[in-house]
Amino acid sequence: MEYLFDGVREFNQKDYREYKNLFQGLSRRQQPHTLFIGCSDSRVVPNLITKTLPGELFVIRNIANIVPFYRESEEFLATTAAIEYAVQVLKVDNILICGHSNCGGCKALYMDEHQTQEIPHTKKWLELAGRVKQKILSEPVLDELEREWKTEQLNVVEQMNHLITYPYIKEKYRNKEINILGWYYHIETGDVFNYNPEEKRFVKIT
């Protein structure tokens, strides 16, 4: 536990001092250019991958970087509310959905009833990626590894489509007032692939 406190001390003594003017400028306002929707996986670090500073990314993280379909409800909708705030209040220019290799959430899509007994809320959440599972199972796959990366990449595309169910995003996207991007991050190599909707494939960012 102590290393967490040591981290704060090091931040105060080094990082904060280096970016003191930046933090002071951000103390009363933020103007991020991008809404980053990523997986909660500890290996995915948005600011590290994009080399962005505090104040540039508005970040949403959840199991398997999922975007719920738009709906109006009296329930507590954390991801939906954060998307709404980023687009309607902060006026971000970009929405970026970032999936990654070896995603536990995507892998859990294929677990049986026994394996999901202790994670009922995760199981329910992953129903939002049900169409991804159905499509993958309907196509021939060489092995489990191929199924893994195909699921992870198709899930990014599926969640990009979910964004268009939000009326205010659909309008902005049609008017070219907002960009929607899909990325796939390969942890082992550090490579990041951007989805090309015209070619319907992920292309390595070089």
UniProtKB/TrEMBL annotation:
Classification via PROSITE patterns: PROK_CO2_ANHYDRASE_1, PROK_CO2_ANHYDRASE_2
Free-text comment on the cofactor: Binds 1 zinc ion per subunit.
Transit peptide as UniProt keyword: no
Pfam families in the record: Pro_CA (PF00484)
Cofactor: Zn(2+)
UniProt-annotated binding residues for Zn(2+): 39, 41, 100, 103
Family: Belongs to the beta-class carbonic anhydrase family.
Record-given protein name: Carbonic anhydrase
Organism: Gracilinema caldarium (strain ATCC 51460 / DSM 7334 / H1) (Treponema caldarium)
